[in-house]
Amino acid sequence: MSSREDILQSIRRATHVKYEKPDLKPLEEHALTYPNVVEQFYFMMKQVGGEAVFLEEGQDINKLIRESYPDAKRIASNLEGITCATFNPDNVEDPAELDGTDLAIIDGKIGVAENGAVWIEQDVKQRALYFISEKLVILLDKGRIVNNMHEAYKRIHTGEYGFGTYISGPSKTADIEQALVMGAHGARDVMVIIK
Question: Contact at 8 Å (CB) between 126 and 78?
Answer without folding.
Answer: no
